[in-house]
């Protein structure tokens, strides 16, 4: 089966490492058929003044330039790797309209939610503030933000980690199935993909985002599924992707959906 990775980062993120060239080089070493670079789209200065969570505005042009340079090099060398120029766009309230123009240069736009009331749900320091809201209320607000994102007109191709708040083992006491069912329904209506994100396998939670039970709900709703390592270093490129494909198959999927450089998709049959 072809090996692909549709969610990767570099040092441009402010909290990753490796250059665009190093990430592409690692993908070639591993024999990947498709690599999507999905750096964090710049966040407003008022929200991320130190640029620790995203690119700066100035870095955006450099990021795009380096991606196009790498693609030209791959074409010149007749390399079998397809490089997809992507971006991960964090959802913030009131950002839907500007995302349409900010995401225009990209072939693949991955939508994600990391912040609830200005606090990151996947950052240990911020998770310490959860008691002020309570675990259940934090989850409810995360679901609301994720649904706001999915229902927005922003030009998303796929959505990431619908159960991200589980990262540190803080789980809600209420039944979440109705929330995930609505998330899956809205995603299907939008014609967007859900991503199996393997980074959770490398964190304390020890499993992918989403879990098998949640992924089954997306499958039941008719949502296509893609896969990404969410690597923030070249060494993690494609990490856990084979396990993710097994998870997809267990959820009912028979193929993984992969973005292409023309903004379309293709399908790779899952083995097993």
In words, what does this structure look like?
The protein has a single domain, classed as Metal-dependent hydrolases (TIM Barrel), CATH 3.20.20. The chain is 36% helix and 19% strand. The protein has nine helices and eleven strands. The strands form three sheets. It has a seven-stranded parallel beta sheet. The longest helix is centred in the first third of the chain and has 20 residues, at 57-76.
Structure keywords:
272 residues; alpha/beta; TIM Barrel; 7-stranded parallel sheet; two-stranded antiparallel sheet; 9 helices
The largest pleated sheet is described as: 7 strands, parallel
* Alpha plus pi helix count: 9
Structural class: alpha/beta
Estimate the helix proportion, in percent.
Answer: 25-40%
Ends apart, CA distance between termini:
10 Å
Per CATH, the architecture is Alpha-Beta Barrel
What is the number of strand segments?
A: 11
Give the name of the CATH superfamily: Metal-dependent hydrolases
- In percent, how much strand structure appears in the residues? 15-25%
Radius of gyration: 17 Å
The run of helices and strands is EHEHEHEEEHHHEHEHEHEE
What is the count of distinct domains? 1
Short description:
With 272 residues, the protein is α/β, with parallel strands linked by helices. It has helices spanning 20-30, 57-76, 96-102, 124-127, 130-133, 135-151, 177-190, 212-220, 241-251; strands at residues 4-8, 34-40, 82-90, 108-112, 115-116, 119-120, 158-159, 193-197, 225-228, 255-259, 265-269. It starts with a strand and ends with a strand.
